[in-house]
Amino acid sequence: MKALIPTRLAVILYGIVMVLFGLIHIVHADIMVAAVPIPGGKIWLYITGLALLLAGIAFIINRYVRLAGYLLAFIFFWSFYLYIHHMHLKI
To answer: Structure pTM?
Structure first.
């Protein structure tokens, strides 16, 4: 049973980081909008910030953790794909 305590602590810390990233996306959307490679950049920042915030809360309260993890992985993959595609078009 002691092996689960460090794992749960790591998940909680990861959740806190995701909540902070979500808040940063929402609060500093005006600054970050220049880095968004698709039209409607500010709304995408708010959507991503909300998703990060909700996923972090799910990790912290230990509810819907698997779903939150899969959706967060999808968001990370999609953001990476858009970034690479945007960099390819700039070259």
So the answer is: 0.84
Cβ atoms of 49 and 23 within 8 Å: the answer is yes
Domain count, the chain: 1
pLDDT tens string 5-20: 888 999 999 999 999 9
Q: In terms of residue numbers, what domain contains 51?
A: 4-90
| Helix, strand, coil tally for the chain in percent (to 5) | 85, 0, 15
Q: What angle do CA 41, 15, 45 make, to 5 degrees?
A: 5
Distance CA 56, CA 60 (A): 6
| Number of helices (H), then strands (E), in the chain | 4, 0
